[in-house]
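User: For a benchmark we're assembling, each entry needs the component sequences followed by a predicted structure for the full assembly. Here are entry 17's components. Please fill in the structure.
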Amino acid sequence: MAVIEVDDLTRSYRAASGIWRRSSKVIEAVKGISFEVERGELFGLLGPNGAGKTTTIKMLITLLLPTGGHARVLGQDVVKDAREVRRRVGYVFGGDRGLYERLSGLDNLKYFAELYGVPRRDQGPRIGELLELVKLDGRERERVEGYSRGMRQRLHIARGLLHKPEVLFLDEPSIGIDPVGARELRQTVASLVEGGTTVLLTTHYMFEADELCDRIAVIAGGEIVARGTPAELKRGVSGGSVLEVEVFGSAEDSMATVRSLPGVTSVVVEDRGQAQVLVVRVDTGAEVTQAVLATLGGVPVGRVATREPTLEDAYVELVETGVPA
Amino acid sequence: MTSVRVFFIGGWTSYRALFGWLSPWILIPTFIIEPVFQILFFAYVGRDAGVGDDSFFLVGNAIQFASIPCLFAMGNTIGGERYAQTLGLLLVSPARRVPLFLGRALPVIVNGLLCSLIALGLGAAILRVSIPLDSLPLLALVVAVSSFACTGLGLVAAALALRVRETAVLSNLVMGVLLIFCGVNVALSALPGWMAAVGRVLPLTHGIEAARALVSGAAWSNVRGLVVDEAVIGLGYLVIGLAMLKWFEVESRRSASLDRA
Amino acid sequence: MTAVLRLLLVGWWLQLKMRSRSAFDGILAIVYPLFFATSVLLMYRQGGSESALIGAAVGASVLGVWSAVATTASTSLQQERRLGTLELLVAAPTRFALLVVPMTLAMGTIGLYSLVATLLWGRFAFGIPISLGHPLVFALASVATAVGVSLMGFLLAVSAVRYRGAWALGTAFELPVWLVCGFLVPIAALPGWVRPISWVLPPTWGVAAIRHAAFGGSPWGDIALCLLLSVLYAVVGTWLSGRLVTSARTHATLALT
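Assistant: Structure for entry 17:
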């Protein structure tokens, strides 16, 4: 049975600007997406910043009302049965906000345990258990303002798990944590799933989604552009090759021209130190190196290389073109 | 010439950043409702306590209100700049420092002046106190000099703000001291001797006295001495404030405490 | 019911802890009203009437109760938004109003510290002999006033949350309430049209009760009215906070970004 059912979910914002004369325009953040997450699954919503991931999660945890479509979590409608949904899901977001700085970690947890109606006699053991899980035991009486980013993030996870939610929503949990912390975080998430919790995770890190998720939906520009298991997504990108050209100067100018060359599937510019790198996806058999170099005109060029496409390329391409590979 | 430019440009940029939230929803409560009600509050308390008359509280509180933007703006500007970590940049910039910091003061003085005069006008209308029309230009001058003097004190507070974290708390405390010691609601003659002595070396005291005299019909020659005293006191605080900034700057370069939160 | 009380209690205690750790909310909330109280006491001392001075010492002590709430209530929810906790509070299954009330109750409690501090200040700095007729009843009237002020703050907090200049609004209410609720000047001395406004504000009755408890007269009617009005404010505030949350979910105004 599906634990999360999302059907043609839409959300638009009215963005206002100006003090005296308010002008407004409508921005569509999520444009009719649908997906299902099964019980016990770890589902990844993968996409760049501003793709609509956070908006989607916020609709599912009842913080935002959808402007169209439906969503059910644990069989409850996120609009009509908001209170019931809130009781049964957990929400953790990345970054170091969302904690009471002047209180200790323990006080933060006590407060939220109360908010979620955790019975008083269960609070002590539950908090102790969670502190151990996120490796904060021994530090819980210190004020949060002295915590490192990683510690804050782990405290967030403990907070999100206080009421033993059946579904946990993790919104970019690894943002701003160092690689070691991020690895520990992934281990924690993996162990939660082993324990039977359903997890919906958003991230813009390909490898994170690859390592953790049972299934992934790639979201870009408010729409789902691809979905499947990590293996399925990888299969979609085999074939063709990638041409990388290091450019010392502005590479953006020639992007449009390069994109229009026959045999070119997509073009992206990446910054690498002082240089920019033009990453060109090329169809099997097509030879575009000379043509690409010609479009650059007088701009100084460094290393030029051709390689096999990776999962990262698939993701970048999906996000750039919005067309499934 | 460069100094003049830094004075104006530096001053304006900083003030605009500070009032980035410029909106009538903030300006009206802060600069109109608050001062007018402070005047009314003390005027009614004065009536109940049987001291002073409406005009006494009107003038005292209206002029005291000129000090608030000066104190807070100076403190917040420099404190805020440290917060945004631009203070270090500002201090190492080759522009000469004195005009730089005075530049911050000018728009604040104008603000204090406007604020005070509006409160004076509205308060007078509500309490039906008549202010001789021909005293207005001199009254404006007195308010301007008092605002300048308070800016001097504001600069001292701002320099201190480099050392304490809670700028707003500090500005509030200074404001409270001015409220009690400067004869705003209790004439210096009715204060204990030591308090009156403190009041005489604070900004505002002489300005308020001069303004009260003007409203009751005194001529310029009668208040000139008071206005000069007020200006000299302001200048004194300005010098102290600049010296403190200079000293903290040297000090903090050595200990790198400027950007510490 | 006990769960709700527990939630209020825990919330209040943690909020109090948090606020007393901030120089601005904690120390200043106690020191700042002292400046006004000092001015006022100096004025009454100059006036020369001993009984008026004693009355003022009691009235001035209540100034800070309102200040502690007025200056912080209107910004409290924006503070939560800045901390990033506002979304978490809304996402919890508990009714939002039950999370805001403890915040303003904690502010009112800090206001009670200010009340005690000002009374002591009057006693020791001004040597004003205050002999409270019924100390226990006085304490009760003070708590009732603090509750009234807190729930007024609750209404202020939920009505001001979507307003960017909320802090300015709160500060602007500080002095008008001092004047209109008769903290020092009897309401009878104000223009007649102000009186109906005074009557609908809980602190008016709270201050009256405090005076009765200190100087004789029955405070019970005033305490009852103060609490009754508080309940009314709480009901309106709760209704408003429900609408507020719905509107925030519609317009996406919970997050800072």
